[in-house]
Write a sequence for this structure.
């Protein structure tokens, strides 16, 4: 049985809380450009709350957010900055080891599986991997909507020798919440995604940026697949706090409203159900802040 590990939470709203400006299209990348010290502070606050893994603020460092021209002119420098800020925050901790996860986002937009371009994806991933590589302990392909996106990430990091975690975003419409078969936003089955992960060389399968209500069924499905295949792969969850349905809109089209009912106590109750279902890596995504992570740590680890 793996030891429980606590991830960090969502970067964007913590940046806003600490005074950074966020606007489209740059979104959280704008903080790297205008307020890198606040990015470092967010990492530090998550670590102080109990996070054992912090994720680089590289999610928006793709042409979808910063534009094609800026990506090729400034992208490498911004990616290195994102890696360095997370590394500095992690290395400032003296009483425990904090790992840095290198965020490899969906290159062509969140929740946009139909926009995936297999012929171009490696051009962009190569820049992210090369410039994050010196700073990270783990690769985290996150908010991936289809298995082909995950395969692209696997290929991009294959030569790095560092562990790979793959995190899919799930369909979280009313049908899914009512107990439909767990699926990715591409409509591919979680069962098939877990089977792919089991043969991919990845060390962990996570589910993120979806409502907490759909996570337990995905964890249970993945655990069943891994048992059947005899695969020793960790399972993780970091849900979002978005209000309303997000399936028809890209995750970063605007500032989604967050739920009033998903306070730190409510979120920790969901987390307990994920742990009981087999998750050993738990944190938060959009709208889940340092207070939630502090409560998670106390609830799950005492």
């Amino acid at each position: 049985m793996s030891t429980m590990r606590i991830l960090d939470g969502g970067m964007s709203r913590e940046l806003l809380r600490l005074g950074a400006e966020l606007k489209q299209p740059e979104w959280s990348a704008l903080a790297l450009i205008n307020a890198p010290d606040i990015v470092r502070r967010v990492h530090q606050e998550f670590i102080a709350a109990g996070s054992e893994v912090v994720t680089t603020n590289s999610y928006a460092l793709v042409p979808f957010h910063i534009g094609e021209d800026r990506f090729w002119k400034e992208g490498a420098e911004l990616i290195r900055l994102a890696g360095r800020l997370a590394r500095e925050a992690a290395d400032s901790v003296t009483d425990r080891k904090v790992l840095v996860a290198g965020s490899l986002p969906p290159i062509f937009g969140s929740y946009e599986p139909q926009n995936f371009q297999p012929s171009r994806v490696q051009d962009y991933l190569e820049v992210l991997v090369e410039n994050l590589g010196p700073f990270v302990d783990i690769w985290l392909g996150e908010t991936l909507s289809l298995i082909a996106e995950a395969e692209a990430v696997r290929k991009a990091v294959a030569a790095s020798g560092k562990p790979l975690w793959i995190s899919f975003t799930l369909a979280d419409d009313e049908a899914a919440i009512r107990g439909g078969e767990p699926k990715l936003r591409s409509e591919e089955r979680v069962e098939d995604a877990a089977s792919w992960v089991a043969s991919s060389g990845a060390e962990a399968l996570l589910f993120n940026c979806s409502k907490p209500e759909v996570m337990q069924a995905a964890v249970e499905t993945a655990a069943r697949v891994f048992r059947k295949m005899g695969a020793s792969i960790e399972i993780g969850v970091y849900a979002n706090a978005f209000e309303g349905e997000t399936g028809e809109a890209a995750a970063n089209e605007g500032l989604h409203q967050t739920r009033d009912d998903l306070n730190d106590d409510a979120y920790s109750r969901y987390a307990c159900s994920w742990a009981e279902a087999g998750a050993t890596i738990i944190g938060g995504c959009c709208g889940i802040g340092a207070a939630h992570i502090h409560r998670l740590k106390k609830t799950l680890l005492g």
